[in-house]
């Protein structure tokens, strides 16, 4: 406890950075994933392709990927953001494709039939209806990427990962265990806060008509 | 109403009210072919849909009736031929703009579940750039038209409505911008039989008020003859087997295909076509509750009637006692009797016959607006009306409908009537 009390500011700052890194990457990933889903949800073959890609992508060990990116991208925030966004895209893309393709075709036809353009149909009908599923994807992503973000410390990225790595490298030394435990608890707390925020966003943005 | 009328005038170029607000539609040699080898889904269809009439497309599934309807608003683009609406060729105009000028209703309404009833109905006006207040008042007006209380239903979501209510909102949404044309794809297919019957009745009365040009796709011949001014019976490839009035489709099928499709009981179905207001009404012996049974009896004997009708001050039937009942009675009934054999003027002869068969008098009381008594109909008068209808006389000529390729259409400049001129040369 002394450990935490002494380094309170440092831990709080790292937690904030961790949170901010994950949140921003998830937002970025959502935009990219929805754009990708928009391209491929109409075609059976592209849907299969997207699903295959997400399945394969999730099997790549994050530690390996982050190490591989040192060569082209160097150290710091950039490789961390790239890796996090990459992993965050996968569940969101999968959910977005499922959500968009499960909008009943009769509804799309009805939207077109009353004179909505293809773009208007997408943004006013299909996207709002797929939104709950996409948001679920965002929650899964943010949980998953929380852990990956800790590894971003390996490339000197921001966040709580630094405490874990420094703790592990000083195994047996003073405060080594405390450092790791604090960081892990920090990650869990940050993850819970972000999840709560996303749940709240869901409350506010999912049409009541879809919940009743 | 005046501001409303001017607004509607902009939409369809015609006045509102009892006049025809629909416009004529002409499919001119329209073909839809999927792939180059297969038989066309719609084969050189030329079809005239008169302004302000309800035209029913019927046929077995896969006959091309839905494809034909979707080509009218170009949800499906025709491979060949042109679509002319109100004299304007719309085959190449912007499809979205075209569709905003037409109402479109699909099975179960096709409402957007994430939007309220009001937002659903207001969708098209919003796209057309109406201001909020005008949209809101239009929404309320339409909800009333389809018999839903605006205060109660405006802010509900589609999932909070029954199937029939959703269908009503679907119709309201289609009518939102007061389009001259309404296209309906199996509109009453997803509701239970009782609700369907009620929705059909409402559709008839809405159409009597609005006089739009309506095209309805259905596979149900009963629905077709009930709702349609004209019925097209299609076979595969949208080949017209018969395009005629419901009466003639029932009484004079063009070929075996139509006869099979109509099925048994064509005569009985005719009962569902005629309405009580077409039947001549007979008078009744009318008394007020204040009179004595003896007076009533005397009146009945004078005119030779077996029953006496007691009416209240608003001319609504209270009771319809027989002469025997009057002899036993000490005074005339004051309280409205339930289960009186009453039919409205808009009821079908089928309903009227049903009422008569269970009534003690073997006849039915006809009531008009606000339940006012208008006369009596009995079995004989109904039969007579049916005989006249089956003769099929004084019915207008059926609109043009053919799959023939070698024709030219000619429009008479005075009447706007379209006639077929066969091109004898046979160029192809």
Automatic annotation (TrEMBL), chain A:
A GO CC annotation recorded here is: plasma membrane
Q: Which UniProt keywords apply?
A: Membrane, Transmembrane, Transmembrane helix, Transport
Task: Work out whether the entry's keyword set contains Lipid biosynthesis.
Answer: no
**InterPro entries recorded:** ABC_transp_perm/SBD, MetI-like, MetI-like_sf
- Going by the entry's taxonomy, the superkingdom of the source organism is recorded as Bacteria
Entry keyword annotation includes Transmembrane helix? yes
Name of this protein: ABC transporter permease
Organism of origin: Kocuria coralli
Automatic annotation (TrEMBL), chain B:
Protein's recorded name: ABC-type quaternary amine transporter
Q: Which organism is it from?
A: Kocuria coralli
Question: What is the phylogenetic placement of the source species in the record?
Answer: Bacteria, Bacillati, Actinomycetota, Actinomycetes, Micrococcales
Task: Give the keywords, sorted.
Answer: ATP-binding, CBS domain, Nucleotide-binding, Repeat, Transport
Task: Indicate the segments forming the CBS domain, all copies.
Answer: 279-338
Q: Which PROSITE patterns match?
A: ABC_TRANSPORTER_1, ABC_TRANSPORTER_2, CBS
Enzyme class, top EC level, equals: translocase
Annotated Pfam families:
ABC_tran, CBS
What does UniProt give as GO cellular component? membrane
**EC annotation?**
7.6.2.9
Give one GO biological process term. glycine betaine transport
Q: Where do the segments described as Disordered lie?
A: 388-428
The UniProt similarity line reads: Belongs to the ABC transporter superfamily.
Molecular functions (GO terms):
ABC-type quaternary ammonium compound transporting activity; ATP binding; ATP hydrolysis activity
Domain annotation ABC transporter: ranges: 25-262
